[in-house]
Amino acid sequence: MILSPVQQYLERLHETAQQNRSGAPADYIPQLGTVSPELFGICLTSADGYTYEVGDTQHAFTIQSISKPFTYGLALMQQGFDAVDAKVDVEPSGEAFNEISLTPGTGQPRNPMINAGAITATSLVNDDGPGRFETIRAVYSAFAGRELGVDDSVFASEQGSGYRNLALAYLLRSFGIIEEDPAPIVDDYFRQCSIEVTCRDLSMMAATLANNGVNPLSGERLFSADVVERVLSVMGTSGMYDGAGSWVTHVGMPAKSGVGGGIIAVLPGQVGIAVFSPPLNEHGNSVRGVQVCEQMSQELQLHFVRAIRSGRTAVHASHSIDQRPSGVRRNDEALRVLSEHGRSAWIFELSGDLLFAGTETVIREISSLPEEVRWVVIDFLRVDEVSDVARQALTNLYRQARLADIQVVLVDPRGRLRDMVQDPELTGEGQPGPPPVVASGQEAREWCEARVLEAFGENLETVDHGRIFESSLFADLDSEEARQLRSLMQSHTYQDGEVVLEINEPFAGIFFIVEGRVVAFGKGYDGELVRLTSLGPGNTFGELALAVGKIQNTRVVASGALEVLVLEESTMEALEGENPELALKLWKALARGGYELLDRKLQETAVRLSC
């Protein structure tokens, strides 16, 4: 089993940050001051809902100010942008979360992330149906993907010590920002701050924002795209209070902290991050949470300036080699072995840009392969950009694969991973050595099939001089007919790399491979030669020219020492006149072989279209 490099990274990060003993839990809310400062958890959830976690990720604590962006978004969804903007501004305050930051003259709170703005946002949630607070709790629960409750002891503690928040609410009422009795609104605000969550819950809530307002597991849309855009924008400028400038500079992800010790950070289209650690710094933000987010941003290149393109998934297609065979013509025994053991080799075709999130998807899928897998091909043909963090993660993946006795092969015709292949961490003394690199997916599939046949075809029979006519291609011939046909053939040998047939040459006959292999190439759309297939003993080539005006449309090159038997055109014409029954059997065998090849190609095309 391959250990996920992402999980290993989080474990190392947790171990490092655990040593940071600075800060102290919030004590101005008495109940929060009793929480153990040793509690510490990290969660990372991808935009498609997969969570990595380490530490105290299941410990329940209160959401506190991390509630603010979600209530603000709910108010926007219910009231619309104009109505909410008339009550709450979106300007950074540059002040602490509990300061009286109101616009002179209008009394508008500077933004919805400070307490005055958050209380205003709570007041804008419709107080109908189940009630204002139950509506808020239901939305939080939908974001987390499970029912959330309230810590009544923390609620009572907040209610018994929250005089400043109550004073802010009455001040807002005096300006007409709050239009009803402030006391019930503040109670609902205290309740929303006292909702119990875990670090894992918060990472799913953050991932839902990263997923454009759709919970990636339930598929439920909770915020519209324009609301998510507004919420994340305000989180980016104001979510970390008077530390927002430093945060956007060093971390560069919209974020929100809470005095309960939680922090969430969101990279749109890619990941949601949550950290829980109660000791706070002078800005009211978790000390370890800030450290973890800064380190992850730098080491995983998550700053929004770098990660400007979506990294949802880089896996264009994945399949075992029995689902998409190479097309190399083989005897029945070889085909049986490949059918039975084809799932021991997998190919992953990647596309687009490999940033952190896309690389994480690749690593996750490869790490979760069944234990029977022994060979993995990663195809970079469609990949445009490979980030530094992707190269490092793939290097770690390769090392883990080798420890698990899995061979990894790269398809990298454009040299995207040249740095990785030359990495001293792989090429140095005592290291596993670099992964093999091939030029095409076809070559990779042939490589995998060869490994499978070597591993599982212990007594596999190959077609040699004495057995060439025992292949399925000539199943209808008796021994005398095979002898007659052999007597009509001419033997030829070729050296490695020698051209046997060239494009546009006239039909030269039908070639029967006795020993060795050939590789066939055809012209692509741009005129460049493209590798089509590889053929081994018992296979034929050259006959397709009979269907296209007796002109060769492929180049056939010897791969290693090659021996063939050739049934020349003049001999075939003579055979049709002298022994029409044998000639008919020959044509039937060739036609059957051609249709079998076509059937495999059609199956391969069907798999491609379904990916």
Report on this structure:
It is a single chain. This protein has helices at 5-17, 68-79, 81-85, 115-124, 132-144, 152-161, 163-174, 182-193, 199-210, 225-238, 244-250, 287-299, 332-341, 356-367, 388-403, 418-421, 424-427, 441-456, 479-487, 569-578, 580-610; strands spanning 41-46, 51-55, 61-62, 196-197, 255-257, 262-267, 271-276, 315-320, 345-354, 375-386, 407-411, 437-438, 490-494, 499-501, 510-523, 529-535, 540-541, 555-567. With 611 residues, the chain is of the alpha+beta class. Strands 13, 14, 15, 16, 17 and 18 form a six-stranded antiparallel beta sheet that branches. The two termini are 25 Å apart.
**Which runs of at least 5 residues are low in confidence (pLDDT < 50)?**
607-611
Q: Tally of extended strands?
A: 18
Oligomer: single chain
Helical content (DSSP H or I, runs of 4+)? 40-55%
The total count of helices amounts to 21
Q: End-to-end distance, in Å?
A: 25 Å
The major beta sheet can be summarized as: 6 strands, antiparallel
Q: Quick check: average pLDDT?
A: 86
